[in-house]
Structure formats: structure tokens, C-alpha cells
């Protein structure tokens, strides 16, 4: 087993495809509680998590992982970067134990393979830090059930369950409690580290807003005066558009789709990437143009190529206006293969080195616990459990 110290190969430039970041402040800039003798953060505390639910696909890579690498590259020496593999979140849907166990390590190998440096960033398994669960319970006790029932995730799962059973009406009483309280656990993931910034997509805005509301509720209830213990985390949004299914461009690229040709996985071979892109749904209109409404298939491929080249898809379309669909797809194949070539090779190497991965996970968990235990010491005292 090679030591962590010898893994300098992980300190490399981020992948070619990286979206530019923008910040959106949902309210005032967060600050710590002075009366609790916690010094003001000297830099940002950035937290993000990803579920261990199979090999990441192109959409996961462009929407999250490559942006983590960019954050790491741009971070100042005073910024803390915390990236978690959120196994407890995966349990809200049925899982096979052996597959979930394998996926935890595959995801860790993936995170390292794309360029996250475990010396610069804290990388760990969420389920290795019990502070998340303890804080979740405290937050559950101050979060109204009505608010959770209005969450988009809960309503979407309820709708999915009803559509899956045409013979009987399925109501919310048939869904598990984990799905209902999923956003509270997400809030605890973030606030256990008193994170100031969270990189999430537009579809997670509601969850982050709930995290802010829970932080505000805790501060009002347990923090004396007008001081603030938990910061109100700011959302970091990537302007890149979502990647759609190659076979059904009306829906997102997804690991759960029964059609394996609908997605491009990090582990796909050059031949598989080529086959999937060349068979991607397009249309019979002559020329290449960006029109998501009228030409969703071609527009999706333009989005992918634009992301790989770090260019706007509209500008990319202009360079292909007079080319055939076959010529265009050839270039998309080349760009995606170039994007995945390095990370794929690194992933295949790392996944064979379980000892190294276990050491990275152990070190990351220790660093994560050190931060969150400091938070929980104050939380227990404020709520009367210390």
C-alpha cells in the first residue's frame, strides 16, 4: 500500500470542463456568535455532499464534481473545503447492502480521481461522523412537520409512488420517515461545520433555504440576545445547464434510467462513449443550432460540448451551423473522451488500492469530527444537554 504522502499525483490541475462560479446571497452575510467565544471565521467554510449511488455519470461530473475541483483550485489558504459521501441519505430509498458498501468506496475513488486533494480538502464518509445524526435530532425537534411536507422532494416522492401503483391510491402515510426528514439531515450536514457556503444546483435551493430557516430558528430559540451561533449558508451556483438523457432529452441524465445508453459513465470505454453519443436522439433538421424547445436533442449535445470546451452552447452552435450531425457528434465524442480519459484511468488505479482509500477516509473523518465536535459542544450546552 502506498502512503498518502506519496499521492502527490492528486495535486493536479482541475479537469478541462469547469463551470464558472457565481455567488448568490440569499440574505445578509453570515457571522458567528461572539458571546460563545467562537472566533470569526477567517475564510469561507464550504460544504457539499454526494450520494454513493453508483458510478457518476457525465451530468454528475459537470454539475458537481468538476466544480468541487474548481472551488479547491480557487480557494484561499483560509478557506475550509469539506466534501462528504452521504451514505445516510442513500438509505431513504431501498438499497442492497453489498452494493451500497461497494459504492461508498467507488465514490471515494471517483472524488480523488477527478482531482480532489485529501490534504487540501476534507473528504470523508458522512456515516463515519455521528455528530450529523445528533444534530439532526435536535433540528427535528424545532422543525415543523408542515414545512417538511411542503418540500419538493417529499411531494415528488409521493407523486412517484402514486404513479407506480395504479390499482391503489398511495398517500404520504406509506412513505418512510427518512424521506420526510431528509432535508433536516441535509441541514445538519451543513451546519455541523457551521458552513458559510454550499455549492448546490438550482434544484437544491429549497433545501438550502430550509437549512437557513433551521439555523435562524435555533439562533432565536437558544442563543441569548441577538447573537448568532449558526451562520446562514450562502448558495454557490454554477450557471451551467443540466445534462439531459441521450435517449430522452425531455428528462435529466440519470443513473436510475433502465436504458444504459441514456447516460455516459465515468468508467465507460472510448467505444462505449462513441456508441452512446452517435446513437443519441437528435432530429432531421439540417444544420446545427441551439434551440432547447424545438431541438432538445441537438441542444443537449451542444450543452455537453460547450461544457467540455468551457464555452457557451450558443457560441458553439455557430461554429457548426453548416456541418452535418455526424460531423458534430464526432467532435462531441472526442471532447467527452478527452474529458474522461484522465479521471477514468486514475479511478481504475485507485479503486484497486483499498488500503489507501481507507486511510484517506479515516484521516478525513478525524478532521471532520474535530470540527463538528466543537460545534456540538456548544449546541449541547445551549439546549441543556451538557
Automatic annotation (TrEMBL):
Pfam families hit by this protein: tRNA-synt_1b (PF00579)
One of the GO BP terms on file: mitochondrial tryptophanyl-tRNA aminoacylation
Enzyme Commission designation: 6.1.1.2
Keywords assigned: Aminoacyl-tRNA synthetase, ATP-binding, Ligase, Nucleotide-binding, Protein biosynthesis
Catalytic reaction list: tRNA(Trp) + L-tryptophan + ATP = L-tryptophyl-tRNA(Trp) + AMP + diphosphate + H(+)
Taxonomic superkingdom: Eukaryota
Gene3D superfamilies: HUPs (3.40.50.620), Tyrosyl-Transfer RNA Synthetase (1.10.240.10)
InterPro entries reported for this sequence: aa-tRNA-synth_I_CS, aa-tRNA-synth_Ic, Rossmann-like_a/b/a_fold, Trp-tRNA-ligase, Trp-tRNA-ligase_bac-type, Trp-tRNA_synthetase
GO MF term set: ATP binding; tryptophan-tRNA ligase activity
Keyword Protein biosynthesis: yes
Membrane-spanning ranges: none
GO cellular component: mitochondrial matrix
Record keyword ATP-binding present: yes
Main location: mitochondrion
Subcellular location: Mitochondrion matrix
Family in the record: Belongs to the class-I aminoacyl-tRNA synthetase family.
NCBIfam families: trpS (TIGR00233)
The protein's name in its UniProt record: Tryptophan--tRNA ligase, mitochondrial
Organism: Coprinopsis cinerea (strain Okayama-7 / 130 / ATCC MYA-4618 / FGSC 9003) (Inky cap fungus)
Amino acid at each position: 500500500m502506498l502512503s498518502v504522502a506519496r499521492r502527490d499525483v492528486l495535486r493536479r490541475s482541475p479537469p478541462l470542463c469547469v463551470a464558472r462560479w457565481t455567488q448568490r446571497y440569499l440574505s445578509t452575510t453570515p457571522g458567528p456568535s461572539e458571546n460563545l467565544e467562537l472566533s470569526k471565521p477567517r475564510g469561507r467554510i464550504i460544504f457539499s455532499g454526494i450520494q454513493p449511488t453508483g458510478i457518476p455519470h457525465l451530468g454528475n461530473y459537470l454539475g458537481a464534481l468538476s466544480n468541487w475541483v474548481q472551488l479547491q483550485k480557487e480557494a484561499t489558504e483560509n478557506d475550509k473545503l469539506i466534501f462528504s459521501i452521504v451514505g445516510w441519505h442513500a438509505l431513504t430509498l431501498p438499497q442492497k447492502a453489498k452494493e451500497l458498501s461497494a459504492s461508498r468506496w467507488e465514490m471515494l475513488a471517483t472524488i480523488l480521481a477527478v482531482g480532489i486533494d485529501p490534504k487540501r480538502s476534507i473528504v470523508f464518509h458522512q456515516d463515519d461522523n455521528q455528530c450529523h445524526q445528533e444534530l439532526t435530532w435536535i433540528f427535528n425537534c424545532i422543525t415543523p412537520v408542515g414545512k417538511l411536507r411542503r418540500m419538493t422532494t417529499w411531494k415528488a416522492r409521493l407523486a412517484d409512488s402514486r404513479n407506480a401503483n395504479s390499482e391503489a391510491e398511495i398517500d404520504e402515510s406509506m412513505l418512510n420517515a427518512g424521506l420526510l426528514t431528509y432535508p433536516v439531515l441535509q441541514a445538519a450536514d451543513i451546519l455541523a461545520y457551521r458552513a458559510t457556503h454550499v455549492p448546490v444546483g438550482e434544484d437544491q435551493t429549497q433545501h438550502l433555504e430550509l437549512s437557513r430557516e433551521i439555523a435562524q430558528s435555533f439562533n432565536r430559540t437558544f442563543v441569548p440576545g441577538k447573537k448568532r451561533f449558526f451562520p446562514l449558508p450562502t448558495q454557490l451556483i454554477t450557471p451551467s445547464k443540466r445534462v439531459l438523457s441521450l435517449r430522452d432529452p425531455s428528462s435529466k441524465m440519470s443513473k436510475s434510467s433502465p436504458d444504459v445508453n441514456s447516460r455516459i459513465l465515468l468508467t465507460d470505454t472510448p467505444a462505449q462513449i462513441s456508441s452512446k453519443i452517435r446513437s443519441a436522439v437528435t432530429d432531421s433538421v439540417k444544420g446545427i443550432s441551439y434551440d432547447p424547445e424545438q431541438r432538445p436533442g441537438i441542444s443537449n449535445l451542444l450543452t455537453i460540448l460547450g461544457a467540455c470546451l468551457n464555452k457557451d452552447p450558443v457560441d458553439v452552435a455557430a461554429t457548426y451551423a453548416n456541418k452535418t450531425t455526424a460531423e458534430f457528434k464526432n467532435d462531441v465524442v472526442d471532447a467527452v473522451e478527452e474529458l474522461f480519459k484522465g479521471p477514468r484511468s486514475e479511478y481504475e488505479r485507485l479503486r484497486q488500492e483499498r488500503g489507501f482509500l481507507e486511510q484517506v477516509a479515516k484521516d478525513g473523518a478525524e478532521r471532520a469530527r474535530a470540527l463538528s465536535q466543537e460545534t456540538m459542544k456548544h449546541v449541547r450546552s445551549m439546549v441543556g444537554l451538557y
